[in-house]
Amino acid sequence: MVVVGAGVAGLTAARVAARRGHDVCCLEASETLAGMAATEVDEHGHTFDLGAHFITNRLAASVGIGARCRPVRRYAEVVRVDGRTRGYPLGLLAEPRFVFGALAARLWSHRRAPADPPDSAAQAARRAYGAPFADTVAVPLLEKWSGRPATELAATALEKVPAGVAGTVGLWVASLVLRRAVAIGYCATLPQSPWVHHVYPRGGVATVCAALAAQVRALGGRVETGRAVARIVLDGDRVIGVRTADGAEIPTDRVVSTVPVTHLDDLCGGHPRLAPFRTLRFRPLVLVNLVLAGRDALPDVMVWFPDDRPIFRATETTRAAPWLAPDGHAIVVCDLGAEIGDDLWRAADHELAAACTASLADLIPDVERRVLEVRVMRAPLAYPLFLRSTEGVRRRLEAGTGITGLLSAGRNGRFRHDLMEDVHWRTHRLVDAWLTSTTEPDSTGPDSATTG
């Protein structure tokens, strides 16, 4: 089996296959592992993570690095609404207009016919949360994050981990009682639990991929960096091999691809069953890491901004994990939605820093004076966009690629809003079911059959 890509999904797939005795080769085009789970450390000891800022103890145990992880001190989210900071979820529940709006929406939902699904994310938000909360918080955040009107987004853009208000509050109370950062809304594949909490591995989040790669190699598999796949070779509708950029031919009847599904058609040399996936779109992000003098700059670890400032989220990673920076320093990551080539994407670091400090001035009055360093990271494929215009294509992908022997997996390959733990467990179940199927190698396997 050949695996294309050595991020969390690719290495998880390779480990599943190697454990089952398959001859596995995992090929990564770049010189390093990890992909979106990359970690960078500068000369001053500041740690910057491109994607996830921490993981869970459950994921750490699965990849064998539990003993190398520190518990995250704190994790909480707040929302900036009408110039005030509201905690999530209890602070927002204390707002009467949000509570009454949600109750009214719930009452109307009982009168609505079951065959009347919402036609957009905007309508889904109003039905789920009530118009006051949807119009003030949920819809503006969706639109800032996606760069599209919420009426153009599919209702599935609002899908999240199924906990409900009561479940979320229960986990939040458990985090206070247990004095740990219980993971809330981070995994849909396995049950949420008070015993699943955030941790941070020594060496950064990229340690997850390093551990998985070591296990694949120990099981006899190969993990090769700096070796790009130029072509997945097909014979009609069936995989027969892989050609690498250096001209090598690898015969195989099974390929797991973690490349963005929008590129899969090109990688296979063109195929009518793969061509529709080109129409799917990802949302690029610009991540501006501000290193500040002092600690506890933000009101809490994560702040959401549904208002008109350019950033939609700011995360003080050192408030959760103080060791990510030397004593007396804080790291605040500001997220800005962009499009490749637009003004934000091309802006100089100092221009982005100025936009972010202006956005944070009402929360950190002396923020400009406190800036010690700026590190900008650009993620061209940060989030999949669930557009109404391509919802049929996205649902088709859930059933597979349509090519025998070709499985598209991972966050970008499966086109899902999955965080790292879901990527790991979903890929594990998907590949395990694929390899243990009694039929010949096939690409089919709806995600609904692989979730718990």
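Next protein, fold it too.
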Amino acid sequence: MDDLDATPEMHALEHGAPFDSPEEFDGHAIHPDARVSPDAQIDERGVKIGPFTVVYGGVRIGAGTVIDSHCVIGRPVAGSRDPLVVGEDSLIRSHSVFYQGSTFGPGLRTGHNVTVRERVSAGEGLQIGTLSDLQGHAEIGDYVRVHSNVHIGQKSKIGDFVWIFPYVVLTNDPHPPSEGHLSGVVVEDYAVLGTMTTILPGVRVGTRSVVAAHALVSRDVDPDTIVAGVPAKPRGPTFDVQLRDGSGPAYPWMRHFHRGYPASVVDEWKRQYGS
């Protein structure tokens, strides 16, 4: 096995201490039942690692990050030495598995039982819902919100401020099963993918567009367009959709939904779209 077998050098101590009273190691709060490689690089400011979590060598964990119990952080990939980088102020909830070789900006948030394979490059503020599966080799922008039970295939490219709702599938194999002919989905900035939609390989979903629930998208979606159906077809411009309470247009959604976004971003949206 790897350096995790070097138990005398681990921070795994006697059993029994609760997570709210962890052992302190150079400013880190690491539960005695966690196994942390001595080759992991952990920022000295306020990191917490829960019981029965395994952190492999080569992992870099930013300040203020909390990793719950029963997680695997930096699972080795054959033939790779690339580190797993988790930005500061992140939260990885229990039973999640992150392979080595991915990079996440500050403010990563996950639900439970999340799987993230190697070579994901993600920006700031990514949220990954419970039971979601990122198959690696993907690019993800800033403040992307991935809900529960989402599958993101390899070679996907996702822009900034994208919403991906539950049970969405981004595919990549035009002639399954094939080898070496993968074509990832591209989702541009501010796009919204409704629940249970499937996007077929190589499709580009345009900026600020909306894919309706249960749609099967086999062709590119123009910017600022709603598509719906199986197969999905254009149903008109997004700005024709009105909020059900009668308060105004539903899209662009940045006009009326601001929760969880930085003040600087919201201020720009207000200048651009009004409050």
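About the second fold: The chain is about 5% helix and 30% strand.
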